[in-house]
Design goal:
With 434 residues, this protein is an alpha+beta fold. 31% of the residues lie in helices and 33% in strands. The protein contains eleven helices and 19 strands. A four-stranded mixed sheet has the order 6-1-12-11. The chain has a four-stranded antiparallel sheet with strand order 14-15-13-16, covered by helices on one side. Strand 18 and strand 19 (403-408) form a beta hairpin. Helix 4 packs across helix 5 (170-185) and helix 10 packs across helix 11 (424-433). The protein is globular.
């Protein structure tokens, strides 16, 4: 039996935070029982969760809330790194957005709290001890790594020297494990995030006022090519956890020209602005007839190199693929003075040009990149999963003048081969026979 994969469109018209993401995915159909069982297995105390329906501007939305006990409560959520000692901060009214890093309410009174200080290794240990799928655990670690890199850069520290306060606080750990669990539960293969709306102005943190977007969000947006759109609204709409989640799962910046919405989930935020704090998550299907070929425009980046090591070329290929390149290849060539070299060719979307060119310049010896925009014809295709005697193997289904062809995916074949201790060719034959 084939397991249907989904394409997800995240409409971040009111920004995104961790709890908004969890709520939207639950409303979209993620298994609530799987989530609650996973969260119950987290080896930490001091929290409970609440899943309910709420109304935003008269619209029913799902709400996911991490409720902390008095000892662990952390009202300001400032993503601040502490350096192994207690400190004094201010307590304000409880109107926060979980893992939203700051709050601009007036402080009411001072008290001293002691919070656990966890580094990235400590957080990974908690994830490893939580009962969740390998895929979900890997995604949770990826989100935390993105956060750690962004905060380390903001504070001028090496990632191994950073100790988390908010990122390592239990409510943030719960939010991120919940995001990873719900996302992987829905079998999502493609994620479209064309734009993320953010507010303007400043927000209060323990050390003063920070500009919006806060430094961690800016660092994530810069490194992972997130498309931010600034609104006239005062306030912080994009939290570091929300930005890190998108950076970890986004595959496409541009929606299909025509698509159908097959399901919609609405996730509520905790803050109240003039603009309703809602994240919409939609399953979509590209509206293309199986009988028709598609045409679109693609960009080819190309450069020649005769003084770059093989190791550097292998590294830059991995980086390009992980940051959105559709295809990457090296071809041998002869350059001036008959020197042997290689031509690097990258196929990508137009919106990814700047990020991919930056990766090429930073990781190779080239000093110039050619750029060509080309039209192409694409056969209609869809992802599929085939049940074999060795388990599920992923593939893609292609349509040529109404006739169907099915191709196995290399990564899925390789995984089946290793898990079942069979040859790669045997895994491939089992796919084609099923």
């Amino acid at each position: 039996m084939e397991k249907k994969s989904h394409s997800l469109y995240l409409e971040c018209a009111s920004g995104i935070s961790g709890d908004m993401g969890v709520a939207a995915l639950l409303d979209l159909g993620a298994d609530e029982n799987v989530l609650t069982e996973t969260l119950a297995s987290i080896p930490a105390e001091g929290f409970s969760i609440s899943i309910s329906d709420v109304f935003k501007s008269g619209i029913r939305c799902r709400d996911f809330d991490v409720i902390l006990d008095e000892e662990h409560e952390n009202h300001d959520h400032d993503m601040e790194y502490l350096h192994g000692h207690e400190h004094e901060h201010h307590h304000h009214e409880h109107s926060h957005d979980h893992e939203a890093p700051h709050d601009d309410h007036e402080h009411e009174h001072e008290h001293t709290h002691h919070h656990e200080h966890r580094n990235l290794k400590d957080v990974y240990s908690i994830i490893d001890a939580t009962k969740m799928t390998e895929e979900a655990g890997s995604l949770a670690k990826k989100i935390f790594l993105i956060l750690a890199e962004a905060e380390a850069k903001a504070h001028g520290r090496h990632i191994e020297d950073v100790h988390f306060h908010e990122v390592g606080a239990i409510d943030s750990i719960v939010d991120i494990i919940a995001l990873a669990t719900c996302f992987t539960n829905l079998n999502i293969s493609k994620v479209y995030v064309p734009s993320i709306n953010e507010g303007k102005g400043f927000v209060r943190c323990a050390h003063g006022m920070l500009p919006v977007p806060v430094p961690a969000v800016t660092n994530i947006a810069e490194k992972y090519g997130l498309n931010l759109s600034f609104m006239e609204e005062e306030g912080e709409f994009v939290t570091p956890t929300g930005a890190a989640f998108i950076a970890a799962v986004k595959t496409d910046d541009t929606l299909p020209k025509k698509f159908r919405i097959t399901n919609t989930g609405l996730g509520a935020g905790k803050r109240t602005y003039r603009r309703a704090s809602i994240l919409r998550a939609m399953f979509i299907e590209e509206a293309v007839s199986e009988k028709e070929n598609q045409t679109d425009t693609i960009v080819k980046l190309e450069t020649n190199m005769d003084d770059c090591t093989g190791e550097a070329m292998g590294f830059v290929m991995e980086e390009l693929f992980s940051h959105g390149a559709r295809d990457v290849s090296f071809s041998p060539c002869f350059m001036k003075k008959n020197r042997p070299g290689y031509t690097l060719t990258v196929i990508c979307e137009k919106e990814d040009i700047s990020l991919l060119e930056k990766i090429i310049f930073e990781n190779t010896t080239t000093i110039g990149i050619r750029r060509m925009e080309m039209e192409r014809t694409i056969l209609p295709r869809e992802k599929t999963s085939v049940s074999t005697k060795y388990g599920q193997i992923e593939g893609k289904k292609v349509f040529i003048e109404g006739k169907e062809r099915v191709y196995p995916e290399h990564d899925s074949l390789a995984k089946s081969s290793r898990v079942n201790n069979i040859s790669y060719e045997e895994a491939r034959r089992s796919f084609l026979k099923s």
